[in-house]
Amino acid sequence: MIAYLSGPIENAENDGADWRLSITHWLKDEINHNVFNPVEATRGTISGITNDEFREMKKTEPEKYKKLVRKIIDIDIKAVVENSDYLIVNWDESVFKGGGTHGEITLAYYLKKPVYLINHVPIDDLSSWIFSCSTEVFDSFDDLKIYLSSLYK
Q1: Quick check: 4 and 79 in contact, CB under 8 A?
Q2: Strand order in 136-138's β-sheet?
Q3: Lowest pLDDT segment from 50-54, 141-145, 148-152
Q4: Is the pTM of this model over 0.85?
Q5: What pLDDT score was predicted for residue 153?
Q6: How many whole angstroms from its chain centre is CA 64?
Q7: Which domains does the chain have, with CATH numbers?
Q8: Is the pLDDT confidence value at 42 over 90?
């Protein structure tokens, strides 16, 4: 099984790398699942460019930036469609400034892939669309781990 690790990158602390690393270890060690980590895929696409330089390109070299981001989008969509069995989504306030996570969840829902959402915002701030595309909604990663352990062990 392969989990796609969805959640904010662009506006998240450390590009959302920390939670992805933590859950990757747990998934591999506890239930023997692999992951697609879009943070790692993004780093490969923009190798040789720092994160700050990459973000600045949006203003200084918008066409080059758009081409790079489209490569990232293509990689991520292919991973959701062809190379993952379910999504784990970390949903916090930084997701409100982005679009990729919303799209990944919607695509997974359309493809009938399970979407496990860890919600860190008040329920009134969780969009009805995202809530309804989610297979299960959890308050913490610990709750998700209990659920996945019972489902896949």
Answers
A1: yes
A2: 34-36, 2-6, 86-91, 115-119, 136-138
A3: 50-54
A4: yes
A5: 80
A6: 24
A7: 2-152 (3.40.50.450)
A8: no
